[in-house]
Amino acid sequence: MGWAIFAILFWLCAWGANAWMARRYGHQRWAQFAIPALFGITVLLVWEGLVLGLGISPVILPAPSQIAQTFAQSGPILREDFVQTILKGALSGYVMGCGAAIVVAVLIDRSPYLQRGLLPIGNFVAALPIVGVAPILVMWFGFDWQSKAAVVVVMVFFPVLVNMVAGLAATDHLQRDLMATYSASYWQGLIKLRLPAAMPFLFNGLKIATTLALIGAIVAEFFGSPTRGMGFRISTAVGQLDLPLVWSEITVAALAGSGFYGVVALLEKLVTFWHPSQRARA
Amino acid sequence: MKSIAPILTVLAAIVLLWYAGSVALNAKWTYDQAARAGESVTVSQLLSDTMHQKRPVLPAPHQVAQGLWQGLAGQAITSKRSLVYHGWITLSATLLGFALGTGLGIVLAVGITHSRAMDLSVMPWAIASQTVPILAIAPMVIVVLASLGVTGLLPKALIAAYLSFFPVLVGMVKGLRAPDSMQLDLLKTYNASQGETLRKLRMPSSMPYLFASLKVGVAASLVGTIVAELPAGATRGLGARLLSGSYYGQTVQIWSALFTAAALAAILVGIVGVIERITLKRMGMA
Q1: Is there a contact between B227 and A219 if contact means CB atoms under 8 Å apart?
Q2: A89 and A188, same domain (yes or no)
Q3: Do A201 and A246 fall into the same domain?
Q4: Within a domain: B157
């Protein structure tokens, strides 16, 4: 019981501290890191305190300390699953799917007729529960990472396509006319004007696609996989009620997801440094 | 309306490609069967056989249409083979979860716009959580809740709620902050309280943002429900249909379940869209 009371006391103190910091220093840089960090620590501590204090069984909800211990001990398993699911499944599918979407977008950009036909369908498909194709693709491409990559390709294709097509249309008449007065060819206009102008839109799609890629790769493993991979590990560990291992896998997935997103966001910063949304922050 | 012709062209191209694909992918089985019987296959035989296999690698469009029609209209609604039955199970969990997630998202968004401390502590995490593959925890939530004795609609609805919660939260915070300082100052000169400002200015001006995120949220909660139906033990719902189809090699069943799910998503997003148009029109914003 002592742990639970301590957790609740800590929660109240942290709340007070955060409210005070937000009122006094809310506009300063360090506070904008310190406040969410304190909030995160509080959530972990309250979780730990409640699990220990109320004697909740680890089968239902393991304490963060227990998860951290499992995380540290099962390094080889986690690394193997990470390579299988994230590097082989998600990343290769992401590269192929986004690459194909960009190429198709540039191709259909030349034909307004195709654009008018493909865009509504692309928008429609982007809202569908595409993970459902996972069982079909697992049947076609087998249990190993190829089928996961295929699911990822299908999942990331349409969001990236729709964004890229919108991006290629983002230049205005004046800019295109200027290129025409320079007597620029189609390719020169594409490379020097329209591709750079499309980058902010493209990166929007790429950022959405990072999460989709991880979801696709993990969910596809629920339909069949070799005896490694994060989706496989999660479903079998749940069956064995080894919840700390499940939470460790989730931690890996969360870290990989934010890391992946972070890399794409960093690339965006490097490529679209000229865009107002990037300049405003600096 | 002038985009109807291009859309139909693209759809026709997709159907054609689909037929070609089903011939190409199913041909191997036909050739194997013929080789076993010691016969040779003519082109017309190949075409007709690849269209009518019992367990094709890729069912032809008319087979899927047949399967869909069988599942939707050919069965009693209460039958376990009826797609209406499974679709209803999925739909009810989706709607319950969507309502929960939307309600919670709006409440938290109101809290965030009124408390700077909450804004600074919760928002970074809410945004960061969008980059995390939340769906991966679905099977765990289902199994843990089942071990606590909670089964049926609620666990699936919780996952659906979780998935629709973040889009609504992020969109609603943006929407509640949409009024500019002129408008806020005006209400201040009227001596409006915070509650009145919320009701008469912030809420109405957040509606376009709310509906945009509701469309994302309802699609996300349908995906959540379907994935939540995948873990072992589920026998009802579209997700379970997908899984049992993949276990027994019933490709037509998988494709019909998939198309039912797609139609469900389209209908749900469409309904939100219609409500959006009516609401915004009556508010004079559209």
Answers
A1: yes
A2: yes
A3: yes
A4: yes
User: Domain range holding A257?
Assistant: 71-279
The C-alpha atoms of residue B44 and residue B51 are separated, in whole angstroms, by: 11
pLDDT tops 90 at residue B99: yes
Q: How far apart are CA A242 and CA A157, in angstroms?
A: 35
If you average pLDDT over residues B123-140, what whole number do you get? 74
> In this complex, which of B7, B57, B265 lies closest to A129 when CB atoms are compared?
B265
pLDDT tens, position by position, A65-92? 777 877 788 778 778 777 777 777 788 8
Residue at A70: amino acid letter: T
- The answer as to whether B52 is a domain residue is yes
Same domain, A223 and A267: yes
**CB within 8 Å of chain B, chain A residues 25-44:** 26, 31-32, 35-36, 38-40
Q: Are residue A13 and residue A150 in the same domain, yes or no?
A: no
Chain A segment 119-148 residues within 8 A of B by beta carbon are 120-121, 124, 127-129, 131-136, 138-140
pLDDT classification of A277: cutoffs 50, 70, 90: low
Cβ within 8 Å, pair B133-A257: yes
Q: Is B121 in contact with A129 (Cβ distance < 8 A)?
A: no
Close Cβ partners of A89 (under 8 Å, ≥ 6 residues apart): A145, A148, A149, A152, A217, A220, A221, A229
Q: Would you say residue B75 lies in a domain?
A: no
Q: What is the pLDDT of residues A81-128, one digit of tens each?
A: 777 777 777 888 899 989 998 888 888 888 777 777 777 787 777 767
B39 plus B147 within the same structural domain: no
Do the domain assignments include residue B69?
Answer: no
Same domain, A88 and A27: no
Q: Which domain holds residue B206?
A: 83-282
Half-sphere exposure of B123 (CA within 13 A, CB side): 19
pLDDT at B141 over 50: yes
pTM of the model: 0.79
pLDDT tens, position by position, B204-213: 888 888 888 8
Between CA B206 and CA B217, with CA B211 as vertex, the angle to 5 degrees is: 120
Q: Got the DSSP string for B50-111? A: HHS-SS-SS--HHHHHHHHHHHHHSS-TTSTT-HHHHHHHHHHHHHHHHHHHHHHHHHHHHH
Determine the distance from the C-alpha atom of residue B237 to the mean position of all C-alpha atoms in its chain, rounded to a whole number. Answer: 13
- A-chain CB neighbours of B112 within 8 Å are none
pLDDT (average), residues B67-92: 77
| pLDDT > 50? residue B48 | yes
Residue A63 lies in a domain: no
Q: Look at chain B and report how many structural domains it folds into.
A: 2
Count of domains forming chain A: 2
| Closest alpha carbon to A193 in A202, A184, A203, A201 | A184
User: Is B215 in the same domain as B147?
Assistant: yes
